[in-house]
Specification:
The chain is mainly alpha-helical and 574 residues long. Among the domains are: 1-121, Tetratricopeptide repeat domain (Serine Threonine Protein Phosphatase 5, Tetratricopeptide repeat, Alpha Horseshoe), CATH 1.25.40; 297-360, Tetratricopeptide repeat domain (Serine Threonine Protein Phosphatase 5, Tetratricopeptide repeat, Alpha Horseshoe). Helices cover 75% and strands 0% of the residues. It contains 32 helices and no strands. It has helices spanning 3-15, 38-52, 56-69, 74-86, 90-103, 108-120, 124-137, 142-154, 158-172, 176-188, 192-205, 211-222, 226-239, 244-256, 260-271, 278-291, 296-312, 317-329, 333-346, 351-359, 367-380, 385-397, 401-414, 420-436, 440-453, 458-471, 475-488, 493-505, 509-523, 529-541, 545-558, 563-571. The two termini are 77 Å apart. The relative contact order is 0.03.
């Protein structure tokens, strides 16, 4: 908890809880009470009884009748003030407590109640003076000192507040929370040296505590005195090289200075600190990784740190899960898979780890593993859309299109609509599956749904356009889809190929040739057989048969087992 906040909450609870719950006053004997008017005195007793029973209206009526008979009894005005305070009638309560004080100015309960009323009306300094006087007069007085200190602070009289807190220290001893509050009050008064001197008292009184050096250094750093802060940090580190507060403080110090090298150095020291429990180490590691998310070198460093934590805590499932993430990021998929599996063997209830494991199996050769582990995950999380989706991808990769379509359809049923990007991806994958299954009507319907959700998904636009062009249908739509995909991702080789092939299907061979050639140039040595074959087909249509055969032969080199290309080469025609 924030120290200032904690101290303020404690003090506020001393007098803002409920003013009307103040103690019953020390009542002097009624000077007017005699046997002749004992009936009026019974009114007072009955009034107190009704107030205790929370029957405030009846109590107020009885007290007013009592005061009509005996108008100079301070306690009755005090009780009326309490009733009106409880009813949030602060003005009336204030008038009544003032009358009680006129009649009995020495009664500390009346003074305290009046001070609380003033504080509730934001009359901080007047209230603070009342509590300061009470502190000077009565012992024990720590509550009064703390109340007056907070009220002086609220009223902008920081030095007076410090004086009251110093009195608390005289009675209590050098209390850390009080000293820190004194330091903060000096800061508010723009006296950084005074704030530093206050914290120095903690260092002097606790020579074996490194964290006070960190507090002092942080004070100077927060107040634009970085060199002084650095000196304090270095002094503290020399004396306490393994102090976690100093390591964390130095990490924050260098982070603010954008000194990534030293920031990483002290984060490493902190996370590896053996005096830190493993949950805190894990929290620090996650924070560090999030802060350096876009820095690949920090991810490498994070991997080294995580390996150290894995060695120190080999049975912590969360650390192993993070270790798997970092191994995956650093292109070590098999080790990543092993880390995820071990994490899940220790805690199978972490769906994020299940997802990360499954993502490692989304390539076609791993289809069986994707199906197997997604089914295991679904026994634990039977309503998780992402698991059905990945299961469907596994079946599609294996060529089991019907099962894949069924799984992805179930995923869409479970998928909340608030995650539109994932929902659009699911519809797109379903479109791919239906297209492979020659169910073109459902394929197009799902591509349309995907684009309705995300009309700027360049990959979906390209794939949809390509499928239409291969089928030779809706070529105008295909052309618009392809054109838009290239506007979103200019120069993408695959997209150029699609755009060129659409022009081929439209009989615009010269334009088709230009686009396919651009795609080949973009791909260079990585150009696949399809592009060479397409260019060969275009040259054939342009009546340049030798060039057509040349490019079919290049396609053959890339794909030696393609019998269709063999026929084209042998027959020198489509």
């Amino acid at each position: 908890m924030n120290r200032t906040f904690a101290w303020t909450v404690i003090l506020l609870s001393l007098f803002y809880s409920n003013i009307s719950s103040a103690q019953t006053a020390e009542i002097k004997p009624f000077d007017t009470a005699t046997n002749e008017n004992a009936a009026s005195d019974r009114l007072y007793a009955d009034a107190i009884k009704e107030r205790v029973l929370n029957n405030d209206k009846e109590a107020e009526i009885l007290l007013l009748r009592f005061l009509n008979a005996k108008p100079n009894v301070a306690a009755a005005y005090y009780e009326l003030a309490r009733i009106n305070s409880r009813a949030n009638n602060v003005e009336k309560a204030q008038q009544q407590i003032k009358r009680a004080l006129v009649l009995d100015s020495d009664n500390k309960w009346y003074q305290e109640f009046y001070g609380n009323l003033l504080a509730a009306k934001n009359e901080y300094l007047t209230a603070a003076d009342i509590f300061a006087k009470l502190a000077a007069k009565y012992k024990p007085n720590e509550d009064y000192l703390l109340k007056s200190a907070l009220l002086y602070q609220r009223g902008g009289k920081n030095i007076k507040a410090i004086g009251q807190l110093e009195e608390v220290i005289k009675q209590r001893g050098l209390d850390e929370e009080v000293v820190i509050q004194i330091s903060q009050l000096y800061v508010k008064d723009k006296n950084i040296e005074g704030a530093g001197n206050a914290l120095h008292r903690l260092i002097d009184a606790n020579p074996k505590e490194g964290r006070y050096y960190a507090l002092l250094a942080e004070l100077y750093d927060n107040n634009k005195m970085p060199e002084k802060a650095k000196g304090i940090y270095e002094e503290g580190e020399r004396k306490f090289p393994n102090d976690i507060s100093l390591q964390l403080g130095l990490a924050s110090f260098y982070k603010r200075k954008k000194d990534e090298k030293n920031y990483s150095l002290y984060v490493n020291k902190a996370i590896s600190n053996k005096n830190l429990d493993e949950q805190t180490q894990l929290t620090l590691l996650v924070s560090y990784l999030q802060e350096t998310e876009k820095d690949s070198m920090s991810k490498v460093n994070g991997l080294v740190l995580t390996e150290q934590l894995v060695k120190a805590h080999p049975f912590n499932a969360s650390i192993l899960g993070i270790y798997g993430d970092l191994l995956s990021f650093n292109n070590r998929p098999q080790e990543s898979i092993a880390a995820y599996k071990k994490s899940l063997s220790l805690d199978s209830g972490n769906i994020n780890v299940w997802q990360q494991l499954l993502f490692n199996y989304t390539d076609k050769p791993s289809a069986d593993s994707l199906i197997l582990f997604s089914e295991k995950a679904l026994t634990l999380f039977p309503s998780q859309a992402i698991l059905y989706y990945l299961n469907g991808i596994g079946h599609i990769n294996k060529g089991e299109l019907t099962q894949g379509i069924k799984a992805i359809t179930t995923a869409i049923d479970f998928q909340p609509e608030d995650n539109k990007p994932l929902l659009a991806e699911m519809y797109s994958s379903l479109g791919d599956a239906y297209n492979s299954n020659k169910d073109f009507k459902n394929a197009d319907a799902n591509f349309d749904k995907s684009l309705n959700i995300n009309p700027s998904n360049a990959t979906v636009l390209n794939n949809y356009a390509y499928y239409l062009s291969v089928r030779g249908t809706r070529l105008d739509d295909a052309e618009q889809f392809s054109k838009k995909s290239l506007e979103l991702r200019p120069g993408e080789a695959t997209f150029l190929d699609t755009y060129g092939w659409i022009f081929y299907q439209q009989g615009k061979y010269q334009k088709a040739k230009e686009l396919i050639q651009q795609a080949i140039e973009k791909n260079g040595k990585d150009t696949d057989a399809t592009l060479f074959e397409h260019l060969g087909d275009i040259y054939y249509k342009l009546n340049e048969i030798d060039k057509a055969v040349l490019y079919w032969q290049k396609a053959k080199e890339k794909e030696p087992l393609n019998e269709e290309i063999d026929k084209k080469i042998k027959n020198r025609k489509l």
